[in-house]
Sequence to fold (238 residues):
Amino acid sequence: MSVVRLLDVRGLRAGYDGVPVLHGVDLQVDAGEIVTLLGSNGAGKSTLNNNLSGLFQPSAGQVLFEGEDITGAPSMGIVARGLVQVPEGRRIFPNLTVLENLELGSYRRARGHCSRNLECVTAIFPRLGERLPQAAGTLSGGEQQMLAIGRGLMAEPRLLILDEPSLGLSPLLVEEMFALIRRLHEEGLALLLVEQNVVQSLELAQRGYVLENGRIVLSGTAASLREDPALRRAYLGV
Fold:
């Protein structure tokens, strides 16, 4: 069976106000994969996500999604194609209800399946189903992260980018979050997992990349990265 390449990033360069942040990034995600992107704060991970999602335009390079060139395309069109980002910091709408936040997820894609997808999301996150009329800003941090992911799932993504999904969560909720990611993958969803949590990310992923100062410095299978001496020294302290 041939491999379906969902995302193919070639030589991507990007920055802000003329200050370069990404220096020729290459990265691929195939259908059904979890690929993790590791890196410390300031490495350029969110910059990469935002350029892939059309929130900013790269200065050079190419982004292909399912073989189509989406480099610099509007974010709305990228979402409509099925490339959906759950951003760092959740970015929910605190004054809207949980239900309204979820419904917004299907605004550009899968609008006709909103009711069906809402049933699916509340089955995955029963706590959200119990809080549909509640203002999103009154949810706990873990519940807000569930809401952010649920909103992304409402769009029936072909590829879901999760930007630091475990950030700010308690250890117990971190375990729940990674169990959820495993479940989504088992159901066939491809994910680009952008994380600082190296150990758990590499336990889940099939492949990974390490971003430092806007450059990919390591890449390979998750198993090979777990044993890489440079990664172990830099991120695991061993």
Notes: The first strand starts at residue 5 and ends at 16. The chain has two domains: 1-72+158-167+190-238, 83-157. The chain has a mean pLDDT of 91. Residues 171-186 form the longest helix (16 residues).
